[in-house]
Queue: 3 jobs
Job 1
Amino acid sequence: MPKLKTKSGAKKRFRLTGSGKVVRTQAGKQHGMIKRSNTQIRNQRGTAIAEDSNARMIKKYLPYG
């Protein structure tokens, strides 16, 4: 059986926790902060856990987690 390839875009954006959950960066934080409220900017700090429906797809992209 050949080795599975990891999607290079996924390995840059996601990582798996010890329990198998998918960690992602917060969306909407790349540019345009002047338009957003301070509350929104504050709440988007750090990382978040991906939803289960998206996490199933992401885990296929990261076969060796």
Note: The two ends are 18 Å apart (CA to CA).
Job 2
Amino acid sequence: MTEFQAEQIENLRKQGVGYRSIGTIVGLSRDIVRNYCKSKGLDGYASDITVNIQEQMALGKACWCCGKPIAQTRTGRPRKFCSDRCRRAWWAAHPEAGNHKEEATYHMTCAYCGKPFISYGNKNRKYCSHPCYIRDRFWREEDGREPYVKPARKEECHE
């Protein structure tokens, strides 16, 4: 069994899929899947496992994103995620879960490219992204450089 297959088995089992269905999807026998699940503590009824993992997440004992167990520290705030990757993935998928107040949201226009953007918590912000700030602050037309054209891809423009 490969690591990818093992990861698939764990993910499918946490979603409540049965041994036989997982075996068909992954390409292994039902018994291999069942034995692997027993070794990882994922044995029992599939619906019970799903409910149990949701309870563990609510109690702070499992990662909100992937469901892996989390070892809590004695001091500080309880951890909700097992890694930064999981934290970023979860917040990217659940932007509505943040406690954003409407009075702290400001609608602005970028001083360089003129694009409207939303600034949360900072009413003095001038630019929609760091590249716009750099171009406006340090690149001038009299330097002989052509003006900056905003990238079309959203990943390149950090708002």
Note: The CA atoms of residues 101 and 120 lie 9 Å apart.
Job 3
Amino acid sequence: MQRRSGSNKSRQGSNAPSQRQLRAGELVRRALADIVSRSTIRDPELADRSFSVTEVRMSPDLRHATCFVAPLGHGDAEALAAALTRVRAWLRGQLSKEVTFKFMPDLSFEPDTSFDNAEAIDRLLHSPEVARDLPRDEDED
């Protein structure tokens, strides 16, 4: 009977990304941020729009990259993701000039809702209903 190494046992059933996926995702995120900041994208919805590539998640085989984007200031994240999806072939071509992979990953764009979630939690924590349940400092009285 053949034994498996301990490192493989710890990964069975785990959905956590590997170090390789994390490094590749960060490399793609930085390269996309550079491309967007210095290039003029010819899509009318993206021409004068400021946004951030907040995270890139790579598939285990590094052939697919899910890029999470958020508009800076106020804006529609869904429309931003749709506009970036339209120009993903051009972005992928520019990305191939920046990074070297055996296979250039296929890009997909998703709106990043983590900032909205954090704002909702912050609003909830500062609501009067929650504030009345918190202990008051005697120094404030």
Note: Residues 19-38 form the longest helix (20 residues).
